[in-house]
Amino acid sequence: MATIAGVSAPHPSQQQQVRGPPPLGPFGPNKLHSDPERFICIYPAYLNSKKSISEGRRLPMTKAVENPTYQEIKMVLDDAGFVLGQTYVLEGKFYPRERSKEPMFRGRFKVQLKQSDGELLKEEFPTRDSIMEYLGEKMPQLKHRVNPPKGAAGGEQPQTQGNQGGQKKKKGKK
Q1: Beta-carbon neighbour count of residue 112 at 10 Å?
Q2: Of the residues 31, 131, 161, 163, which has the maximum number of CB atoms within 10 A of its CB?
Q3: C-alpha–C-alpha distance, residues 94 and 168, integer Å
Q4: CA distance 110 to 4
């Protein structure tokens, strides 16, 4: 599982190495396209079909995914050929419009679109919308979304509840 940069960083007074990438500086027009300050930002809320446009969804409902997590986005980006720390950065940030501060809503991706000379990094992803649409297409095909584990919320729990309810009805009739 991925670790989020900055989540478990030591206190500045301690003399330890800081985990994760160095903090990003302010944007400047003299920055190269290969600098992380020029990467595009993607939050899980942009892809969430449970959110309205005013809550931060940026994809149409037909292309959005129900409650995406940063782990799923990371899997799809890795599969697309992006490299953590080189062509994308994962930060432990919350989307500002997100009301819930639970860990599942955490994660900001900064993804590189262009090389330092201005050429596209990957021809199949010319814009931020193309990357988000690709994420929306591929996330439903992930293994744990297609075949959820039996111990998950959608697994066998409803079936066992139905059997228990049936037994109670039989006891009540006797």
Answers
A1: 22
A2: 131
A3: 46
A4: 12
Q: Is 123 helix (H, G, I), strand (E, B) or coil?
A: coil
21 neighbors 3 (Cβ within 8 angstroms): no
Residue indicated by tokens 């079936």: 159
User: Does 36 score more than 70 pLDDT?
Assistant: yes
In 3D, which of 18, 57, 45 has the Cα closest to residue 101? 45
Judge contact between 116 and 93, C-beta under 8 A.
Answer: no
pTM above 0.85, yes or no: no
Give the Cα separation of 17 and 36 in Å (integer): 21
Amino acid at 87: T
Report the pLDDT value the prediction gives residue 159, as an integer from 0 to 100. 47
Strand order in the sheet with 40-42: 40-42, 106-111, 88-94
pLDDT in tens, 85-103: 999 999 999 999 998 888 8
Sole residue written with tokens 């993804």: 111
Dist. CA 89–CA 74, nearest whole Å? 10
The region of weakest confidence among 8-22, 45-59, 140-154 is 8-22
How many CA atoms within 13 Å lie on the side-chain side of 41?
Answer: 14
Nearest-angstrom CA–CA distance, 35 and 32: 5
CA dihedral (122, 127, 132, 134) positive or negative = negative
